[in-house]
Amino acid sequence: MDEIVHVAGVDEVGRGPLIGNVVTAAVVLPKHCDLKLVDSKKLSEKKLIYFYELIIEQAIDYKIARASPAEIDQLNILSATMLAMKRAVEGINIKVDLVLVDGNKCPDISIPCEAIVKGDSKVLAISAASILAKVTRDNQMRVLDKDYPQYGFAKHKGYPTKLHLEKMAKLGLIEGYRKSFRPVKMLIG
Question: What is the third-level CATH fold of 7-188?
Fold first, then answer.
């Protein structure tokens, strides 16, 4: 077997929200990277941004990719996530020998791939991908919050919280909602 030189870690953020893209990232870190990363869900916003910048600086290569709400509605959330992961991996500009994905399913790619349940807390490159995807997705929600402050996107990040569902019912839907998701579908009628 050939020596494994470059490993890409892959993760996603945003499968559960009712609005916006599902965001994925693929990250190749140097072999002896000493970043003290953890799963993005365990980090404060300040720490996320701090690590985001360190990862961008230290990664050998990375790619952030997305699947749109229209693609999510057309394919389903799992297939759209796999498509976004494929885009992220294929966007890496160096030869990747192995892809490690957080979860239990690999995207349809030509590179050897291994799915690792809870990989974002076990594999540094997956943790890095988790952080890049989370910061990118959160930024998308902050932009949406500036355009539509009455919905509270900066607070709930598009997830179906009580507040978000109340705002949707009261204010109606805006562009970018995932029409195939039940709470959105119910409002459409």
Answer: Nucleotidyltransferase; domain 5 (3.30.420)
